[in-house]
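Example with several molecule types.
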Amino acid sequence: MQDQRSRKKTRITSLDIAHRAGVSQATVSRVLAGSPLVNAETRRRVEQAVRELNYKVDRHASSLRTQRAGTLALLLFEDPTQDDSHINPFFLSMLGSITRACARHGHDLLVSFQQLSDDWHADYEDSMKADGLILLGYGDYLAYESKLARLVEQGTHFVRWGQVEQGQPGISIGCDNLAGGALAGRHLVERGRRRVAFLGDASSRFPEFFARYQGCDAALREAGLAMLPELQVDADSTEQAGVDAANALLARGLPFDAVFAASDLIAIGAMHALKQAGLRIPEDVAVVGFDGTSMACYANPPLTTVVQDTSKAGELLVQTLLQLVREQPAQSVMLQPVLEVRASSGG
Amino acid sequence: MQDQRSRKKTRITSLDIAHRAGVSQATVSRVLAGSPLVNAETRRRVEQAVRELNYKVDRHASSLRTQRAGTLALLLFEDPTQDDSHINPFFLSMLGSITRACARHGHDLLVSFQQLSDDWHADYEDSMKADGLILLGYGDYLAYESKLARLVEQGTHFVRWGQVEQGQPGISIGCDNLAGGALAGRHLVERGRRRVAFLGDASSRFPEFFARYQGCDAALREAGLAMLPELQVDADSTEQAGVDAANALLARGLPFDAVFAASDLIAIGAMHALKQAGLRIPEDVAVVGFDGTSMACYANPPLTTVVQDTSKAGELLVQTLLQLVREQPAQSVMLQPVLEVRASSGG
DNA sequence: CTGAAAGCGCTTACAG
DNA sequence: CTGAAAGCGCTTACAG
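Resulting structure tokens for the full complex:
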């Protein structure tokens, strides 16, 4: 009666349950799979035995038989940063929401950090570890794209988080970065800013950042202004890169009254450097970030930022991937960001 | 020859490799398991076939046979915070290092967010999804402890991150919080501070925070001072809790010249509130945090903090858990923290 | 509604 | 050093 207390020497199998409930092992399996073809009373007996012996279906046996893993894999790409303490908080927030979305959909989540250069391809799906892949992370898109094409060719189920564009291999879920950039640009124009610097790569290698830049430019043009190439400085998404980019911008000696940073991390690093240089935020320079990470709220001054809804994004990524796994039609989607105005741009 | 290009209609099995290499399926398995009992030439032929067909061992079949999953599970506990964007950056940094440590040891990592109240227990190991569990997160330790005891009773393999103390159920890896608190206390004393407030729970329900408090107190006593209970305010590890705790402290109207926060998040929130109240940091109040998250460095002013080495912690957690899984002896370990001095305490 | 049986793709004694 | 065979614990047609 208390045998579940024995220090798991012998695994409890569906056969044990079958004996205890006085049915066949097949019936036990049916009950646990929720088959409707089981008598209510039989079901009750089996469920009781399952509870009493604390039985859990063996995932490997089940997966081997059904050829489905019930697991998704999240591959997080990071470029150079090997330092654990500097993982991009935006991606970590995504990780949280993806984890929860997986749980809601009854799937487990394998998490793995990858170098973009690695030879990962469809390893997870090939070895049946996961039914599909979620790809997340920045990195040179040009290098990335050929890998995506390869995944498509192999028939791997995957969804990518990133800039959504025509003709991309596979399916992408992403923020409408063009709209997000426009939100930032329009806001700065309204606040009377005319010379907006952009900190972040603005090339097709980094399509998300590029779209933010272009969106901001479009908004300025509506007002008869424009982004100035001489006020753009490359930066990847780290605080240190933000510091460096702001310093490089200052070194150029050109006037500017606003900074639109491609990410919150860049913005926070930039604010640090700008204040160091004796500039007042927002009086001398208005600063707007992107992502809506929690640190924006506690930055000094609190950072105006374009917020991406990571909860919705995670749910959509998982949902879309599961559609692909089930061979159902699915499509790329862009999520609309929202501007959160705080003191860094004049409140 | 190019059949690997076919959109994975039929799975490639070890039998396919066997045919192609002209050996038995058992030999293929031996080669892939790295068995030394294989002729070099035979091994070469098999490896070539594996490469040509891009074969990957089916993890479920393998695990079913060996009764080992090759996977560890990370259970992250969060208390109230359901909001993805507010996941504790310290734990996320740990997640990064654990992921990497798993990869180094050839294991996959399942990640799951749990409520402390949930009925998780040994579910992962019972269903063979994981060989062992890593438990990470804050929460009321008293509620936690009985669950740990239950895991031990069930013979589940697990390692917990947290305060290391005598007589705890199972094995724990943690920071030497007492030493960390002493580092902070000694530093503040050296800077001439006499009335140190503590923001964070300081009870046996939160043993990590409590040990930090006690360590700081011990350091003050070495200098003929002491922590004052009236300068302690409860707070869990969020920025908002830091804001609230600092405001509560200010409302008491008692003098204090330093704040030791139980975590960086609390410290950053507290600095926010203190500045709001017109206090200068560090002139009026020195602030020291705990964790060594990357945001400490870019806080305003940059935050002095007790740094925990998350890389080492992740490696040790994984290593220790794998020892348990292999039924090898293992023991609890405390890691020594390091003080990183920045401007918030006078530089 | 239920049971007997096949088989998912491996690993590993066992025999040679 | 290699092969034939058993069996890990399920799920699911098939037959009743």
